[in-house]
Amino acid sequence: MNNQQSLLNWYQLNKRDLPWRNTQNPYLIWLSEIILQQTRVNQGLPYFLKFAQKFPQIESLAAAPEDEVLKLWQGLGYYSRGRNMLKTAQIIVLSNGGKFPDNYHDLLKLKGIGPYTAAAIASFAYNQAVAVLDGNVFRVLSRFYLISEPIQSSFAKKLFNQLANEFLNKDNPALHNQAMMELGALICTPLKPACLECPLQQNCLAFIQNSQLQFPIKLAKAKPKNRFIAYFHFQFNSQIAVFRRPSGGIWEGLYDLPYLESEEKTDANSWFEKGSKKKWYSSNQIIDLVFEKKHILTHQHIYAQFYRINCINKPILNFDESWVEYNQLPKLGVSKLLSSYLELAMAEPK
Fold first, then answer.
1. Global pTM?
2. Mind telling me the catalytic residues?
């Protein structure tokens, strides 16, 4: 029995029952793949179910306000995925009558759809013979072929793409691609691969050399940047000051509290003494540090402090702020960090 057939046999016996595997609807497949970028299945599954229920067709997603999409996306991170998903849905509905392109090359032309997502849709929805390369597949191939090239390099990406398409079962590409991804997720894991259960074990060069944990080869990651940020909860009667984050940077398009940033952790008075923000408060305002949290992102660690300021008069913050009622806060799309604070703040007496 050849490697491809052994892989398919293993997959049929061991695959997880996931909703996007029970359909050839390109919209639902696309939805799952966008959600699962940078996200594990157990975290992404509830989001997929919420989106599929709220927006069962691409037309309903395309008609949704951006705030509604971002609110539903809240907690997944990499919010540009949600914004691009909405824009792509609108383009498909307006320019193509809601019909997805049915081939890899045309799918690549859509916003937010790269080689991996295009291959996944083309393969799973249309059974097109194009290999899918995600992190799991990179790991399987690097061990199977003993590839010593760092996977981030442009040469490695071309090499892996070539090998993946050579290894692809051309008669059943959709099933093969799902099997490769599942093998990496369940068996060929990063730290504790279950090699004795692997259908490719006999021909895996890393297993033969007992060097599985040395692969894939990766370039060293840059050290995360530390950021110290003070958020200010300006409270005026039953209203709170918020603003929409601008384009560029993290949490683009989400709502946030006015904030100041420093190169090191400091106290409330020191925050206000920096620059032009003294006008944010006066001596008769009450300033309380009510919440601290370390929030870890891929390339940065945020050390956040949340200060509550009870305002006698409504201040002008020059932050393009809006004053919203407390009961409106749950409708706003915010970061996971801000959401954790607002849950605390809204639970307290106003």
1. 0.83
2. 33
